[in-house]
Amino acid sequence: MEQKPIKKFTKDFTQQEPIADEAIDRVMQILRSGRIHRYNVAGGELSEASLLEREFADYLGVKFCLTCASCGMAMYLALKSAGVKKGDTILCNSFTLAPVPGAIHNAGGKIELVEITEDYTVDLQDLEKKAADPSTKWFLISHMRGHLTDMEKVVDICQRHEVVLIEDCAHTMGASWNSRKSGTFGKIACFSTQTYKHLNSGEGGLLTTNDPEIIAKAILYSGSYMLFDRHLSRPKTDVFEQFKKQIPNYSCRMDNMRAAILRYQLKHLDNQCKRWNERYQLMEQELNKIKWISCPRRPQEEYYVGSSIQFSLNEQGTSAIQEFISKLLQRGVEIKWFGNVEPVGFTSAYSNWEYLGALPVLENTDRILAGMCDMRIPLTFDLDDCQLITQIIADVATEVFENQSNS
Ligand SMILES: Cc1ncc(COP(=O)(O)O)c(C=O)c1O
Prior knowledge:
Layout: H1 21-33, H2 48-60, E1 64-68, H3 71-82, E2 89-93, H4 99-106, E3 110-114, H5 124-131, E4 136-142, H6 151-160, E5 164-168, E6 176-177, E7 180-181, E8 188-192, E9 205-209, H7 212-223, H8 238-241, H9 256-266, H10 269-287, E10 293-294, E11 302-303, E12 308-313, H11 318-330, E13 336-337, H12 363-370, E14 372-376, H13 383-406
The chain binds pyridoxal-5'-phosphate.
């Protein structure tokens, strides 16, 4: 009998789209001018960083924005500017990535992790319980891999317990809950423009808020060299007066080249989000047909941006999952696994953050992460690529898991 040819996928899961010529041209102009630093402007010139701040604040519908060196630094500045003191308890959902506990550690906070649900969102019962502790003043919610929790409920819990909400929107730029943009629910929001995010400047972060004192402090912390009047997205200069000698310079600004690349991309963000979702929805539909796999439920209120996809392998043991992942890799499909005991690439579980000391065990999180797989969906993949990838996953799942159940 003739053997069916083994399908292989050959594209790279880390390959983003190229930077557009228009943005490259602008970067070349900046390079030729030599004025790369955000405060290095010729008479009357507005820096790219300042313009991006105004444009991103307008996009989000908030008053203020500050560009930063990374989202990790934006989160650090957010915590410092909100008033976190050494030893303060900061709640954070247990499904997130290393820069989030890193920012909490950097700000001197004590992390308290909140359980997650089967849909990878925050467990609201656990949040309610932990927010009710009178020593808890902060909640840094991480909309990890773009999964939005019911934000009205989150805000309600935080308000009732007087907990300040800060949003990590590294994976939800362009997303919304009940038509309200992600990043407008908390007192401060932080976004990433690192290569794998929805805008790509290699590295970069954006901090947004409506609070004039918070933005003034964040601008000072970011390292404004007392040139805060060159920002367009800022309150009156007298708001800075009370803090300018009190706040250290942590030097984590963004430069004009990155800002120029981002200004161009921002104009196309909403369309890019639609392209991601076409790919996500095709994959979700195909993956959900596979007996051993389930994708999380996405509530109607959520407008997500499917730049990656996660799914659970139902009731499979460690060795079967390892075999599944390695066989997929042999066929060119790169899947990350949050159940891995060792942190690999862009995955890590809370048990790996040993620098935080011994953290209480979270049974639900452990069970959910044990079966959770994660796959990037770069826009360099077209719909046929997505179809082929899910077909390979279906073939490999049958090969590995069917054998397991027969043995
Ligand atoms: C959930 C989450 N939050 C924050 C960040 C931090 O982003 P950055 O790399 O810009 O510091 C990342 C980075 O991958 C992330 O995945």
